[in-house]
Design a protein that fits this description.
Helix content: 40-55%
Order of helices and strands: HHHEEHEHEHEEEHEHEHEEHH
Strand content: 15-25%
Structural class: alpha/beta
Number of strands: 11
Shape: globular
Radius of gyration: 23 Å
CATH topology of the largest domain: D-Maltodextrin-Binding Protein, domain 2
CATH class of the largest domain: Alpha Beta
Length: 307
């Protein structure tokens, strides 16, 4: 056999996502390049690694075993690289973080200084909805998770980072008064929601129940950016985290509707399993956050604190 580390990496990713298209996106390769690597890798085995049923790609039982072996080999290769850098006195390793979708406006600022100080660190950051973030934490697939709503898990530790503020926003087709409206206004507006499993959706639904509101769901979209564009286009209004609206508010594409009991507040938190055995890089990152979070907030989120 004469397979390469690149072929192992490609096949391991295909096995993980069960899709050549998804694998190509995550590996930043073209679909033809991934298909060629899979074909060349398969030619070295007499037993099929994958099969296609309909238009869906499935990894065979034999393929799963090969993917598990490939993952172990790749982990060992990474360990060699990390040990080499550690021998040179550098903080090295892989830092794995899962982030709720609106957290992509927060987490990079808390990572920036740390990664610049330790350029040998390899970052893996998955941006997804709250349900999948919690799942990755429960399966011990990540070192940390960033959430704005604490999950109902017993065995977690947390570090508060930044307040999360949700406002009712609309485009500028209509002029709203400056004096706050009563919250019953929410029952009269076409509100666009995030999907089930979203932390923002959970926070809004809790607010609706607590205030005994009868709100009709006008539309449901699966990303914060999709909701934002729908509001700008005039398809409705939405309750959205302020953290992702800076440019649109400054440009006048969006406006905040003043309404009683707003903003709805929660807290961006880094959480981790209480029993987690931190790698040196994970321990170093947590120390960095504890030492620098106030400076980062003051320096990077000054505009945010004024709302």
């Amino acid at each position: 056999m004469n397979y390469t580390l690149h072929q192992l990496q490609v096949f391991q990713k295909i096995a993980q996502v069960s899709s050549i298209t998804k694998a190509s996106k995550e590996l930043h390769l073209t679909q033809p390049a991934v298909s060629i690597q899979l074909k060349n890798f398969q030619e070295q085995f007499d037993i099929p690694l994958t099969e296609v049923v309909g238009r869906q790609l499935y990894v065979t039982d034999f393929g799963r075993e090969i993917a598990e072996a490939a993952e172990k080999i790749l982990d060992e290769v990474n360990a060699i690289n990390f040990k080499t850098m550690a021998y040179k006195g550098q903080v090295t390793g892989r830092l794995k973080i899962s982030v709720v979708s609106t957290g992509k406006y927060v987490m990079p600022y808390f990572l920036n200084g740390f990664l610049k100080a330790h350029p040998a660190i390899e970052l893996y950051m998955d941006v997804t909805n709250k349900a999948k973030v919690i799942e990755s934490l429960e399966k011990n697939e990540v070192d940390f998770a960033l959430v704005s709503v604490l999950p109902e898990l017993q065995n977690i530790e947390k570090l508060d980072l930044l307040q999360n503020k949700l406002y009712l926003v609309a485009n500028n087709d209509e002029t709203f008064r400056t004096r706050p409206y009563g919250i019953k206004l929410l029952e009269k507006l076409p509100i666009i929601f995030r999907e089930q499993g979203s932390g923002t959706r959970n926070t809004i639904e809790k607010f609706i129940i607590e205030n005994d509101l009868n709100i009709q769901k006008n539309m449901e979209l699966t990303s914060n950016e999709a909701v934002k564009q729908a509001v700008i286009a005039g398809l409705g209004v939405s309750i959205m985290p302020l953290i992702g609206l800076k440019n649109e508010i400054n440009s006048g594409d969006l406006q905040i509707i003043p309404i009683q009991k707003f903003p709805i507040k929660s807290t961006w938190r880094i959480i981790w399993n209480k029993s987690k055995r931190f790698s040196p890089v994970a321990a170093a990152f947590l120390s960095h956050l504890k030492a620098e979070k106030n400076n980062i907030i003051s320096e990077k989120f000054d505009w945010y604190e004024h709302y």
